[in-house]
Amino acid sequence: MTATPHPPTTPQPTSAPQPSGTGAPQPTATSQPSGTGASQPTATSQPSGTGASQPTATSQPSGTGASQPTATSQPSGTGAPQPTAAPPLPGTGTPQPTAAPHPPGTGAAQPSGVPQQTLVSGTTRLYAVLGDPVGQVQSPGLLNPLFARLGIDAVLVPVHVRAADLETVVRGLQRVGNLDGLFVTVPHKTAAALLADRRSRTVEITGSANALRREPDGTWLAENFDGSGFVAGLVRAGHEPKGARVALVGAGGAGSAIAAALLDADVDRLTITDPDTPRLTALVDRLAAHWPGRVRAAGRPPLADSDLAVNATPLGLRPDDPLPFAPQALPPGAVVADIIMKPRDTRLLREAAAHGLPVHHGRHMLTGQIDSYRAFFGLHAP
């Protein structure tokens, strides 16, 4: 039977060509195989800022009732991307959603394109990284994906602690039953070493710590991987420290650990500068007791005859910080290394590169510590 024409009362969708014998024009639809019911209209695009995108009609297998929608891409301003609907199972009228893969160690599927998110539950183990400031810390971005990849139910969070509050905060965290470890960054590495019950040989020599671990008996052990991580990063980047003449600026927590690791890596000569003369003198005395004749203090770094110059100070965290040293005073081919991780390209590294010198970024020191962190905290797949 042909449809009876009727006058439209509201604007109608665009008419498709009408087969012979039919009545009024029909809304545009996608092609429909034989045996289906009626074709469905095409949804218009959804404006930015709406809740969810609208479906478009897909072709329906022969014998089903009506065409089923598939999810379209999400417009800008909406929440999270929507999973794509798979074709309906034979004989059913409802499409089956395609599940997005979820990262190992999490309990729920993550939509495609959404960054991995560590899920926290009542059984989650805690780690904290303490610093002032903490906006520049990179360890959560490395360790939390590692936890997920290994299937470890744990999370690392930054904790902003002022120097005056450090002991109070650390003592409180050490009493948290599901907290297994602490990471320490600027400016707390020297003070944190004193808050552990036991200290490794490296911490005893350098006087600083960047990791504290809860032992089975409830006591806390302090360790420092800054130095070993820095040297590992240098070697991986092709900058072999053995036999090098090194100018190191900074005798604080990270600088002291880097100094010990460079001497342990057989640098030929290490010259350390720092405006805090008592701190500098104490560090050089401790290092000289283990590596006599190879380390010295200086008022200014001997850049003209150095193969490697290292900034181990916080200078470079802020855009208006002065340079820790003048890279143009270095000889051609000398490597300029910075331990600042954010920004990646500090003013020091930019100026060194502009003078044609090879540069070494701060993130290498952190990535060089990952294996040490895994061993120290026992981070293995369950």
Report a brief summary of the structure.
The chain is built from ten helices and 16 strands. The protein has 382 residues and is of the alpha/beta class.
What topology emerges from the helices and strands here?
Elements: E1 56-57, E2 69-70, E3 85-86, E4 96-97, E5 125-131, H1 139-150, E6 154-160, H2 166-173, E7 179-184, H3 189-193, E8 198-199, H4 201-206, E9 211-214, E10 220-223, H5 226-236, E11 245-249, H6 253-264, E12 269-273, H7 277-290, E13 295-297, E14 308-311, E15 335-338, H8 347-354, E16 359-360, H9 363-367, H10 370-377
Parallel strand pairs: 5-6, 5-7, 8-10, 11-12, 11-14, 12-13, 14-15, 15-16
Antiparallel strand pairs: 1-2, 3-4, 7-9, 9-10
Helix pairs in contact: 5-6
Question: Mind explaining what this structure looks like?
Answer:
The protein has a six-stranded mixed sheet. A six-stranded parallel sheet has the order 13-12-11-14-15-16. A two-stranded antiparallel sheet has the order 1-2. The longest helix is centred in the C-terminal third of the chain and has 14 residues, at 277-290. The chain is built from ten helices and 16 strands. The chain has helices at 139-150, 166-173, 189-193, 201-206, 226-236, 253-264, 277-290, 347-354, 363-367, 370-377; strands at 56-57, 69-70, 85-86, 96-97, 125-131, 154-160, 179-184, 198-199, 211-214, 220-223, 245-249, 269-273, 295-297, 308-311, 335-338, 359-360. Among the domains are: 125-225 and 369-377, Leucine Dehydrogenase, chain A, domain 1 (Rossmann fold, 3-Layer(aba) Sandwich), CATH 3.40.50; 227-367, NAD(P)-binding Rossmann-like Domain (Rossmann fold, 3-Layer(aba) Sandwich), CATH 3.40.50. Helix 5 packs across helix 6 (253-264). It has 382 residues and is α/β, with parallel strands linked by helices.
